[in-house]
Write a structure and sequence with these properties.
Length: about 500
């Protein structure tokens, strides 16, 4: 590539990264990051920093949680050690940029055309998954996504050690990535079936991925309560009438893996219904919105080669068969599987028309479609719990807040570094994690409670009225004393016996 060509690529990359930064960093400054997932992840990073290889499930948070089998936390650890919450968010932002570079390098390797590589990179930057990831907290999947393009790059160059390293980044990010990864590596053998060496490598990759799923379960998830594990989201499928369970007409059955599998394998009409329709009124439109966004962002390439659609079968199954509405839709990190792979698959599909105008039309359609859908997902989504102020980077309200960052952080210094503390969900990421780090209204043995006033978006799991009542109750509780109440921040300290 010539110098001026590299300059254009760098300018486009920098422009998109500026937009990505304008989404994620103002959110944290304006108290729009939350206990789940940023503060929770900071707690895990803090445990790793103190020498815990496997985080203690109860010691820090005070209640049972399901921890992801995620060595990717170690990749982010240097950023956390230097910059705390801000360093962790910078790592996530840079991970998106590194992924974009990987897309460019891979597309350039396949085509030897810098314009094609640039268009593929722009397609990735237009994917709604990147915007939704950055508009809500921090997620360990940001490490996994950059593994895919680099894995393919080194795999096709037969540099198998580096390919295996980046594959490890991918499947190590999250257990669902590992489950999908085993399927993905098996499907990739179809595309490289004429090269025995590559097929053998992919077969080994599939086996090692399955092994990692078992190891991850034993090390991280086993021993957690069923209520804290993601497995409970599919327990309803063990009932003879799963839809009645979701609608509240029948109680949730005991978890029964055999009954669950029997329903999935013998009742295809039930699975088909749940994949496309919401059993409750509040979820209407969420699943179909996801399919719509998938198709417009490049999923239509599956019409040219059905194997592309087959690759996503596990993704749609574990998304849409879940009992959690949030997993169905386009929010947070739940669209990153599409964001990273659709630009690659669209390139593969377009290459069949290389040398004709249809090749450029396909790439252009991917870019236009992904950007159009990203705008729609930000401005007019169906997904529940979407808060537009988190992602509308072009509007002034995205950069405004009732809460003064500097004054609140100065007041938070009243809380000793090692004291156990309970905080409302959007204040917790601004308090350094420690053993005894709780999400209000859980207080447990906390010595301090820190809450934001005028906080309608940060009262979860309480509604705003319940949240305000809790503040009043604490103000009159003889076991607590109010030590700070201004700048829309109130801090309570437990009285000593």
């Amino acid at each position: 590539m010539k110098l001026w060509q590299k300059g254009i690529v760098a300018a486009v990359w920098g422009g998109y990264m500026t937009i990505m930064g304008l989404i994620t960093f103002p959110n944290h400054y304006n108290f729009r990051t939350y206990f789940y997932d940023l503060a929770f992840s900071l707690g895990i990073l803090e445990q790793h920093l103190q020498g815990y290889i496997i985080p203690e499930k109860k010691q820090m948070f005070g209640f049972p949680v399901a921890l992801h089998a995620s060595p990717s936390f170690y990749v982010a650890l240097p950023f956390y050690a230097v910059g705390g919450a801000w360093g962790t968010l910078i790592f996530q932002w840079l991970a998106i940029g590194v992924t974009a570079v990987g897309i460019f390098l891979y597309a350039y390797h396949r085509t030897q055309q810098w314009v094609v590589a640039l268009l593929s990179m722009m397609h990735f930057f237009g994917m709604w998954g990147s915007y939704s990831l950055l508009s809500f907290d921090w997620h360990e999947v940001c490490t996994g996504i950059f593994g895919i393009p680099f894995f393919l790059l080194f795999f096709e160059k037969r540099k198998y050690f580096l390919a295996a390293l980046f594959w490890a980044f991918f499947i190590g990010a999250k257990e669902t990535f590992a489950i999908w990864g085993a399927w993905l590596s098996a499907c990739l053998t179809f595309f490289y079936r004429e090269d025995r060496q590559k097929v053998r490598f992919l077969g080994l990759t599939t086996l090692l991925t399955l092994l990692w799923i078992g190891v991850g379960w034993l090390l991280y998830l086993k021993g957690g309560s069923p209520e804290a594990s993601r497995a409970h989201l599919y327990t309803y499928l063990a009932d003879p009438d799963p839809i009645a369970v979701l609608q509240g007409r029948k109680p949730l059955p005991e978890h029964n893996t055999l009954a669950l599998l029997r329903n999935l394998l013998t009742r295809p009409q039930l699975v088909w219904t749940l994949l496309f329709e919401s059993p409750t009124p509040e979820g209407v439109g969420i699943k179909t919105e996801t399919y719509w966004a998938f198709l417009w962002s490049g999923g239509w390439v599956g019409l040219t080669n059905p194997i592309f659609l087959l690759v996503y079968a596990p993704v749609f199954l574990y998304k849409n068969l879940s009992a959690d509405l949030q997993l169905w839709g386009t929010l947070t990190q739940y669209s990153m599987e599409f964001a990273i792979t659709l630009p690659i698959f669209l390139l593969w599909g377009a290459l069949r028309w290389r040398g004709t105008r249809y090749f450029w039309w396909a790439l252009g359609a991917g870019i236009i479609g992904s950007h159009a859908i990203a705008y729609e997902m930000i401005a007019h989504p169906y997904s529940k719990w979407h808060i537009p102020t988190r992602s509308i980077f072009w509007h002034s309200k995205h950069y405004c807040s009732h809460h003064n960052y500097a004054k609140i952080h100065k007041a938070l210094k009243l809380i000793p570094r090692e004291a156990r503390v309970s905080a409302c969900t959007n204040l917790a990421p601004h308090i350094p994690p420690r053993f005894g780090y709780y999400e209000f209204p859980y207080i447990g043995d906390a010595e301090y409670v820190a809450l934001l006033r005028n906080n309608p978006e940060g009262t979860w799991p309480l509604n705003p009225q319940e949240y305000e009542k809790k503040i009043v109750d604490l103000s009159h509780d003889p076991h607590w004393e109010k030590i700070y109440d201004k700048d829309l921040l109130v801090i309570f300290r437990r009285k000593k016996p």
